[in-house]
């Protein structure tokens, strides 16, 4: 069996989940190809693959613009390839489910068979910073779920997508983020803490940052992935009107998972429900 992973990840969460899924599939003898979605990235002919994973983070109850653009570049027919959506979001709220609606429509119009989606909660890269304990508990939930869910995908299981009218409507309305982000991105600025290292410019998936006079200059094509500000070693990038929601610096997923009493107060009930669902499954031996 051959599998193609087309994955967009702004700050690494979706990449981390999809690479772990790919490792599971490799253990089962699946030949895997991983493509990082970026502006002008390669587009593989899906007809040569039995499975295609489309990975993305939820942005304002949608997939990011770059994912829609990538789907438009895919070949016209999905052939016999079974497609699974794998997404990450910062919270387990049901409106995040609607983010698959337009992705599904675009893929279906092109003749792709979307068999289901898997949604993993990972720490916020914007809005507020989760504790590392929360990040570790989220990651353990992924590790518990993956062996079962990867087997389901390999078996070709069909799972109805949760894209009912209410979720679809919210997702449609918040697609305003797509035309808004290039405007908001124009307001990104580096502070005097910037050392001119160029990491932000090298990493931007939209090639939207150029260096001038040792400082980054932001263009008109931002998609709000926050890779630049999240990854800046000096925390020197202010993200315009969104600056109050800025989160900077990698999470440590390897520590002690947050106990129930340490689960963050925001959406606590939903997080606990999500964790407890995953914790019915055993943690794989090699991950203990
Ligand atoms: C512009 C933007 C919008 C976001 N919107 C949502 C959202 O609607 N719901 C949610 O739960 N998380 C939201 N998040 C959080 C991300 O989905 C979450 O942190 C994700 O795991 C990031 O994945 P990545 O590291 O692969 O980019 C948003 C993040 C950004 C940058
Ligand atoms: S990553 Fe940060 S320090 Fe480096 S050039 Fe960009 S803004 Fe400046
Ligand atoms: S400018 Fe920053 S937030 Fe905008 S697309 Fe580039 S890396 Fe992402």
**Pattern of helices and strands:** EHEEHEHEHHHEHEEHEH
* Structural class by sheet pairing and helices: alpha/beta
CATH class of the largest domain reads Alpha Beta
Number of strands: 9
Name the strands of the widest sheet in spatial order: 2-1-3-4-5
For the report, how would you describe the main beta sheet? 5 strands, parallel
What is the beta-strand fraction? 15-25%
As a whole number of angstroms, the C-alpha radius of gyration is 19 Å
Mean pLDDT: 94
The helicity comes to 25-40%
Poorly predicted regions: none
Domain count: 2
CATH topology of the largest domain: Rossmann fold
- What overall geometry do the principal axes of the alpha carbons give? globular
Distance between the termini: 29 Å
Which terms would index this structure?
single chain; 288 residues; alpha/beta; Rossmann fold; five-stranded parallel sheet; globular; binds iron/sulfur cluster
What does this entry show, briefly?
The protein is an alpha/beta fold. The chain folds into two domains: 2-173, Rossmann fold (3-Layer(aba) Sandwich); 177-245, Alpha-Beta Plaits.
Walkthrough of the structure:
By secondary structure, the protein is of the alpha/beta class. It folds into 2 domains: about 1-175, 3-Layer(aba) Sandwich (Rossmann fold), CATH 3.40.50; about 175-245, 2-Layer Sandwich (Alpha-Beta Plaits). Helices cover about 35% and strands about 15% of the residues. It is built from 9 helices and 9 strands. It has helices at about 15-25, 65-75, 100-110, 130-155, 165-175, 175-185, 200-205, 225-230, 270-280, and strands at about 1-5, 30-35, 50-55, 80-90, 115-120, 190, 210, 215-220, 235-240. It has a 5-stranded parallel sheet, with helices on both faces. Strands 6-9 form a two-stranded antiparallel ribbon. A two-stranded antiparallel sheet has the order 7-8. The chain is globular. The relative contact order is 0.15.
